[in-house]
Amino acid sequence: MTVSLVVIMFELTGGLEYIVPLMAAAVTSKWVADAFGKEGIYEAHIQLNGYPYLDQDEFTHRTLATDVMRPRRNEPPLAVLTQDSTTVEDVETLIKDTDYNGFPVVVSRESERLIGFVQRRDLILAI
Q1: How confident is the model at residue 39 (pLDDT cuts 50, 70, 90)?
Q2: Which DSSP string corresponds to the chain?
Q3: Which residues pair with 117 in a beta bridge?
Q4: Quick one: which of 6, 61, 68, 89 could link to 113 by a disulfide (CB 3.0–4.6 Å)?
């Protein structure tokens, strides 16, 4: 890696006089970052802002779709996509029959445990 980094830096800078200071700065910044912790800057900002962070290994499906999204009064029940049993025909029908901008993805219609959310435009692009 060091040799390829030297070659790339030489091509970017055009001279050897910049390679040593740039490499020293890169190594120093790596050491400082490792001293502060192993998490990345994005995880740090998520924690600083208090956003929910869902690690895939720790996430269990406890939240119901109806706990997060509720239809307005006098509207049909929540339109959802199931994790395993939704077909392309089901998605096309859902897009044709509704005007929602997105749909919750649940484990099954019986449990309605929330596992994600998909936007209408992403579904249209995928089809």
Answers
A1: confident
A2: -HHHHHHHHHHHHSSGGGHHHHHHHHHHHHHHHHHH-SS-HHHHHHHHHT-----TTT-----BHHHH--PPTTSPSPP-EETTT--HHHHHHHHHH---SEEEEES-TTT-BEEEEEEHHHHHHH-
A3: 104
A4: 61
Answer yes or no: are the C-beta atoms of 107 and 115 closer than 8 Å: yes
Which residue's entry shows tokens 């120093």? Answer: 28
pLDDT at 6: 59
Distance CA 61, CA 21 (A): 50
Partner residues linked to 118 by β-bridges: 103
Nearest to 105 by CA among 54, 55, 69: 69
Model confidence over 68-115: pLDDT tens digits? 777 777 877 778 888 888 888 988 998 998 888 888 888 887 877 888
CA 11 to chain centre: 35
Between 59 and 67, residue with greater pLDDT: 67
State the Cα–Cα distance between residues 106 and 120, nearest whole angstrom: 16
